[in-house]
Automatic annotation (TrEMBL):
<protein>
    <submittedName>
        <fullName>Nucleotidyltransferase family protein</fullName>
    </submittedName>
</protein>
<dbReference type="InterPro" id="IPR029044">
    <property type="entry name" value="Nucleotide-diphossugar_trans"/>
</dbReference>
<dbReference type="Pfam" id="PF12804">
    <property type="entry name" value="NTP_transf_3"/>
</dbReference>
<dbReference type="InterPro" id="IPR025877">
    <property type="entry name" value="MobA-like_NTP_Trfase"/>
</dbReference>
<feature type="domain" description="MobA-like NTP transferase">
    <location>
        <begin position="9"/>
        <end position="161"/>
    </location>
</feature>
<keyword id="KW-0460">Magnesium</keyword>
Length: 194
């Protein structure tokens, strides 16, 4: 598959409980908000549809300017709820790629590898570091119904562990798949731009 046939879902609405009172995704990282890095990188690919679930009005305006259709989650919605909200807006795509806005270092080559892995019986391509599996993840269209039915905080984990799916793991470095959860994580990320 290729990105032109796929919908992109960017989740930018987490509660950021471990980050404190500051809006994590609007925190400065190399002169731009943290939540913009992944979004801008993803825009280098052509997508059938670009969706973002976002809470911050300021980030929403930026993402809208980048061509994302933005969706507002319900208060206290978990990752599963947010993913379902976006999946319900997907129409006519060959599949979806799910990314998190707090992962600023995922290379575009990794996203392309996930998309390219789908097909010939492979319906999910998941990122891995060692034994750990997680986002970004690419799903073929036959999983969109299951994504629409998600709820709670677990995200798509139950789809990933289902015995009925064919998956291929795409290995990445720990640094590439690091996300920003705490102020210390942000400081380490700032050091990488040093």
């Amino acid at each position: 598959m290729n990105s032109e046939d796929m919908a992109l879902i960017l989740l930018a609405a987490g509660h950021s409980r471990r980050f404190g009172d500051e809006d994590k995704l609007m925190a400065d990282l190399d002169g731009r908000p943290l939540g913009v890095h992944m979004a801008e990188r993803l825009c280098a690919l052509n997508w059938r549809q670009k969706l973002a679930v976002v809470v911050s009005d300021e980030l929403r305006n930026t993402l809208t300017g980048l061509g994302f259709e933005t969706l507002t989650p319900l208060p206290l919605a978990g990752m599963g709820d947010n993913l379902a909200l976006a999946a319900r807006q997907v129409g006519g795509a060959a599949g979806v790629v799910v990314c998190l806005a707090d992962m600023p270092f995922v290379p575009l080559t990794h996203i392309s590898a996930l998309v390219s892995a789908l097909g010939e019986g492979i319906t999910i391509a998941v990122s891995t570091v060692g034994e750990a599996k997680g986002p970004p993840v690419a799903f073929s269209a036959n999983h969109i119904g299951a994504l629409r039915a998600l709820s709670g905080d677990a995200g798509a984990r139950r789809i990933l562990i289902s015995a009925a799916v064919q998956t291929v793991s795409i290995e990445a470095s720990c640094d590439a798949l690091s996300d920003i959860d705490t102020p210390d994580d942000l400081e380490r990320a700032r050091g990488r731009f040093g």
